[in-house]
Specification:
The structure holds 2 protein chains of 2 kinds. Chain A is an alpha+beta fold. Chain A contains 16 helices and 10 strands. Chain A has 2 domains: 2-47 and 308-443, no CATH class; 62-291, no CATH class. Chain A has a 6-stranded mixed β-barrel with strand order 2-3-8-5-7-6. In chain B, helix 3 crosses helix 4. The chains are: A alpha+beta, B alpha/beta.
Chain lengths: 446, 242
């Protein structure tokens, strides 16, 4: 029966090509704008490590100024980063399955095919659990062990892009490169990995690409190199002229994450944090109210307000625009259906029920919406391409938008959902109206 | 076949109340050919619409093929219309965007029927009315007489027990009208009950029985030229027959 209704719908739509084109365009515009905005919103607000949402936690403690919170606009939250001494102490705990303490630095790399030229490379100094905890894919080789962290071994992991630049795409594993005038042996090359937002360190922009090089945690102290990210200090009385002074200060600059496989381990880790807080509080530190947090990625993204009010407003406006398009389409559809009311009257006389007339017309609205969906997807693809072009070189967002400003499976799902919604919103009332028209009204006037 | 007892139908607007049928009673036997005549506005078409289950009645009892259909849901009335009743209209009421084959096919589309069975029935109906060669034509490509024959094929394709015809020759010239009446008579001879609404006294005389409606009530009943005494059913309501 649906094939029959489909055939009738196509015939009906083909009989009014101008009107059909207008309605498809109206729906297409609405869906196109909506899908574009939703795709971006989805990219901005999604949890890139959703499958570990109940395992991976950010660790934060409020060791900020007793006189006020770290961020007055978010007074209930502790600073998003830890001090060096707190992070290193807590990272020694054997409660978490995995633990990561880290910070970004700038490095200068040379080697491989491009040996003659050194270039600046964003680098992350981190403990070796980083790769397994965040499920970072490897194209070649692997990460390092805890021994490499402790002994500051000369090993390095490269991003796929940096490996391609240095070794032309061939595996660089086993090769030696120079990083800040020291030799490092390449032990791993990452696969494609673009967690968006870059949840593990959003201080330098949540939509930046991950770093291009990774070296063991122990190198931080050896190199005495401070972070290239955010260093926030509240105690102006403290000296912060060099690495050791900063490491001993109350400045926050270390990101800390732990992997806790179950609720019991999480409770134990919370006890560790609280115990440490009590100890430090008694010793004169941590003078603010106790606020020790283990925060999963989803909550972390909310707390850090990655999705701004502007984004939400944009989504509302996009839906409002879709509704305007649908109201227009519904009006046109109503006129079209009422124009065909005599034929519906005949069908009713010949045995079609109201429901069958409704379904016949809702199928027509569905086909129209499907046409609008295709046009909308094309417009959306163009819109996302425009966004990529617009933000490609933006320093504010980095190249992050390029990571999700594509027509992907989420975009298609949005389009499909909107098509179904469109069918019923734009076509529902006209189809219902036409089903309610008494057949006798039109039988005499044919 | 068709029995109405004290049926009333009132159309209301904010200011006007029109009694289209008042205590209307009639009985039509299976296989009868009944002509319904009456002046304009007398209630002929309302009777036909109520009989065809296109309009619900306000009061009274309507039995179709020994089933009380007075208070059925819209779905049930639609199903009965589809399975038991065939309609022939003055203005043919063919769907202009469908060819003749698809027009005749419409009633069968609302039944669970295989494509092969539908094809067999549609072809048979078109052959019966002599339009097999025109099945791919649009209604606008046919003459008035051919369009009405297509409409008759559509009315018969579902093998209804009752055919309701509303001024079926009203838009045709006299030659075409005679051909259509011949066709209806032939259909009636095959056993199908026909109720024909007409202004034309000559056409009415070709029926077996002629009933006259005035002001929504049955005024009188005559035996038509084609009747036999056993086929004539008297109005069931004394008031309507008066």
């Amino acid at each position: 029966m649906f094939a029959y209704y489909g055939r009738l719908a196509l015939k009906s739509l083909a009989s009014t090509p101008g009107l059909t084109a207008l309605m498809v365009l109206a729906i297409g515009l609405g869906i196109g704008v909506c899908v574009t905005i939703l795709t971006v919103y989805h990219g901005v607000s999604s949890n890139p490590l959703w499958w570990k949402n109940d395992r991976v936690y950010s660790v934060t403690m409020d060791d900020w100024d007793p006189e006020g919170p770290a961020y007055p606009e978010r007074p209930h939250l502790p600073p998003p980063q830890m001090t060096y001494m707190d992070a290193t102490y807590l990272a020694a705990s054997d409660v978490p399955l995995r633990k990561v303490i880290m910070y970004p630095v700038n490095g200068v790399v040379s080697g491989g095919a491009d040996a003659g030229r050194a270039f600046k490379t964003r680098t992350r100094i981190t403990t070796g659990d980083f790769f397994e905890m965040f499920d970072v894919p490897f194209q070649y080789g692997a990460g390092w062990t805890a021994e490499a962290d402790a002994g500051a071994q000369n090993v390095i992991v490269l991003s796929r892009a940096l490996n391609a630049r240095l070794f032309g795409g061939a595996s660089g594993v086993g090769q030696t490169i120079r990083w800040n005038d020291r030799e490092f042996r390449v032990i791993g090359v990452l696969g494609e990995w673009h967690p968006l937002p870059r949840f593990y360190d959003m201080n330098t922009g949540p939509f930046n690409d991950p770093e291009d090089a990774y070296i063991p945690w122990g190198w931080g102290r050896v190199l005495a190199q401070l972070t290239s990210g955010t260093l926030r200090c509240w105690n102006t009385a403290e000296a912060t002229d060099n690495f050791e002074q900063v490491a001993a200060s109350s400045c926050t600059w270390i990101q800390m994450w732990v992997e806790l496989p179950d609720a019991r381990t999480r409770e134990r880790m919370q006890t560790v944090l609280d115990g440490y807080w009590s100890q430090q509080h008694a010793a004169g530190r941590f003078q603010r109210p106790r606020n020790n947090r283990l925060t999963n990625v989803e909550q972390w993204l909310r707390d850090q307000e990655v999705v701004q009010d502007d984004n939400r407003m944009l989504v509302r406006l996009a839906f409002a625009f879709l509704v305007v398009c649908l109201i227009n389409t519904a009006g046109l559809l109503l006129a079209k259906f009422l124009n065909g009311a005599p034929a519906s009257g005949i069908r009713r006389a010949l045995g079609a029920s109201r429901a069958q007339i409704f379904i016949q017309h809702i199928v027509e609205a569905g086909i129209l919406a499907a046409g609008g969906c295709i046009v909308g997807l094309m417009l959306s693809a163009a819109g996302l391409w425009g966004l990529r072009a617009l933000y490609a070189n933006s320093t504010e967002t980095g190249s992050g938008y390029a990571g999700f400003a594509y027509v992907d499976s989420a975009t298609l799902v949005w389009a499909l959902v909107l098509t179904v919604v469109t069918t019923f919103l734009a076509g529902g009332y006209p189809a219902w109206r036409i089903g309610r028209v008494p057949p006798t009204v039109y039988l005499k006037s044919q | 076949m068709l029995k109405m007892t004290r049926v009333s139908k009132v159309f209301r607007t904010d200011t006007v109340e029109t009694h289209a049928l008042r205590d209307f009673s009639i009985e039509v036997s299976a296989g009868e050919f009944v002509a319904v005549t009456g002046p304009s506005g007398s209630g002929k078409t309302t009777f036909l619409n109520v009989a065809g289950l296109l309009e619900p009645l306000d009061s009274g009892v309507y039995e179709l093929a020994n089933t009380d259909v007075s208070r059925l849901s819209d779905n049930a009335r639609s199903r009965l219309r589809n399975e038991k009743i065939g309609f022939i209209f003055q203005s043919f009421n063919l769907i202009t965007t469908l060819d003749i084959y698809d027009n005749v096919d419409v009633p069968l589309r609302y039944r669970r029927m295989s494509s092969a069975e539908r094809h067999k029935r549609v072809s048979g109906a078109l052959e019966l009315v002599g339009l097999s060669a025109r099945m791919k034509h649009l209604p606008s490509q046919l003459s008035g007489g051919q369009q009405q024959r297509a409409a008759i094929a559509r009315a018969l394709v579902g093998e209804p027990v009752l055919v309701l015809a509303d001024e079926p020759t009203g838009n045709l010239d006299s030659l075409m009208a005679r051909q259509i009446m011949d066709l209806l008579a032939e259909i009636n001879r095959s056993g199908t009950t026909i109720v024909l609404v007409t202004h034309d006294a000559e056409l009415a005389r070709r029926s077996q029985r002629n009933v006259h409606i005035v002001d929504g009530q049955l005024a009188d009943a005559d035996v038509g030229a084609g009747s036999t005494p056993t086929q004539v059913a008297q109005p069931s309501s004394p008031s309507a027959a008066a």
